[in-house]
Structure formats: C-alpha cells, structure tokens
Design brief:
The chain is α/β, with parallel strands linked by helices and 185 residues long. It has a single domain, classed as Rossmann fold, CATH 3.40.50. The protein has helices at residues 20-27, 92-96, 98-108, 131-144, 165-184, and strands at residues 5-13, 42-50, 55-63, 82-88, 112-119, 149-156. It is globular. The mean pLDDT is 95. The chain binds guanosine-5'-triphosphate and magnesium ion. Residues 20-21, 39, 62 line the site of magnesium ion.
Amino acid sequence: MGETIYQIKLALIGSDGVGKTSIRRRYLGLGFKTSHIKTLGSDFSVKSFDLQFAKGKAVIWDLAGEAFRIPRAEIYLRGAAGILAIYDVTKPVSLENLKMWAQWTSKAITGIPFYIIGNKIDLKDQRQTNEEDVKQIMQWIDENLKDVFTEMKMFETSAMTGEGINQAFEEILTTIIKSSMDIEN
Ligand SMILES: Nc1nc2c(ncn2[C@@H]2O[C@H](COP(=O)(O)OP(=O)(O)OP(=O)(O)O)[C@@H](O)[C@H]2O)c(=O)[nH]1
Ligand SMILES: [Mg+2]
C-alpha cells in the first residue's frame, strides 16, 4: 500500500488588518513585515508538511479582509478542509466580526473545523480581549450555526515573534487528517 500524500486546503479569514497575510508568511518561513499591504481578493501559498504520521502539502488561501463585501467571494472557500478565523487581540470588534465571518463561511462550506486565532499577542499593553470574550463568540456560533463546524478551538499567535503559529497549523492539519482516516477505516 502506498503512502498517502495529503493535499489540504486551509483558508485564513477575518477582518482587515488582523494579520492573515503575516500569519501565512510566518508559517512559510518568510519573516515579518511591519507594513500593511491589503490583500486584494485572495492570495495563496503552498507549504509542505511532515507530521510524523502523515505528510503532504497545505494549500493556504488568504482572503482579503473585505472578501465578504465582494459578491460570491465565498466560493474561494470551496474545498477547504479547515478554517483559520483570525482576529486581532487589540481590536475587540475584529473578534465580534467573527460571528459574521462564520455565517459567511457557512454559505460555502460546512462540516469542517473552525479555529479561532487571536493574533498580535506581542502587543501586551494594547490587549483588549480575553478568553471569556472568545468563549462568548464560540457559544454564539454554536447556537446560531448549529452543526456547521465539526470542531471549534481557540489559539493565540504573534506573526511578529512567531509564537503559536506552527502549533495552530499543525493542530488543524492533524485534526483534518485524523478525521479523514476515520472515514477511510
Ligand atoms: N505587532 C504585530 N503586528 C502584526 C502582527 N501580525 C500582523 N501585524 C501587522 O498588522 C498589519 C496588517 O497585517 P496583514 O498581515 O497585512 O493583515 P491582513 O489580515 O492580511 O490584512 P488584509 O489583507 O487587508 O485583510 C501589518 O502592519 C502587520 O505588520 C503581529 O502578530 N504583531
Ligand atoms: Mg492580507
């Protein structure tokens, strides 16, 4: 039996400027830029992964913070096996907006994990959200979008220092691969 080489599409969503592109760049090993160049429409990168029990490629779609205003832009989510929904821990509104992003996602795709990531944790003095706030958002999504997502989890990252980035990607890839193995067996 040959080894399965997985190809897994992930999508990074969330409001303008929360750090989606910076997170993608950091995961790719491309360092950090202080400038904000808005992503237009969408962009993507491919990165190989090797998780001991499985290897393959992650195809990482990075959507514009304005994507939800573009008609039918949710088609970019088609075929995604997991969502990384990003907010900025210094901007509570970006966390609140994840309700809308979750609804938007559910128009295109269901039955996949939805991971909520608080980015910019290096800005400790400016932090304005805590774990309780995130739990409330997760509860809202759970109640209003019943059974749309197979799993919700929260993470924290800094694209500037790199903290938490690999863990978030590895955990969602592991979850996706394990659930596909369950289906096969
Ligand atoms: N301090 C700090 N700044 C960050 C971090 N991540 C991103 N930034 C900064 O935040 C700004 C926006 O980052 P982007 O990665 O372009 O944000 P985006 O979510 O891709 O934005 P859109 O493409 O417009 O939706 C840039 O100035 C980044 O340098 C972080 O973890 N810490
Ligand atoms: Mg961007």
